[in-house]
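Hi Y.,

Following your request, here is the sequence exactly as I used it, all 114 residues.
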Amino acid sequence: MNKLSTEEAFREQIAGSKPTVAVFKADWCKDCHYIEPFMPALEQAYADRLTFVVIDRDELPDLCDAYHILGIPSFIVFKNGQELTRFVSKLRKTREEIEEYLDKSLQVAETISQ
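Below is the corresponding structure, written out as C-alpha cells. Let me know if you'd prefer a different format.
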C-alpha cells in the first residue's frame, strides 16, 4: 500500500478515474495493526479495480480533520476527487467486513459511471 505523506499527494491520488481506497490509520492503533496481515491479500485481489493508499492520521492531522476522521482505521473510497463511500466504526473491522465494503464501493463507482 502506497503511503501518502502530503495533502497534495493525497488530492492528486483521489482525483483519478480509478477508485482509490484511502485507509486512515496510526502506528499506535491496535485495530490498525489487526488488519495488517490480510490487507496485502485484499489489495492484490482488488488491484485491477481499486488503488489502495494509506494515510497516517498523526502525520496529516489537518487532512484527517477535513474528512472528519475520528476513529481509525477508517476507509474512504474516492473517484474523480469525490467521496463515494465510507467505512468507519468504533468496532474492530474484520476481513469479511472490509471485503463487503470494497464490493459495495465498486458497485457505487460503477453506478456513478453509468
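Residues 42 and 99 are 8 Å apart (CA to CA).

Thanks again,
Q.
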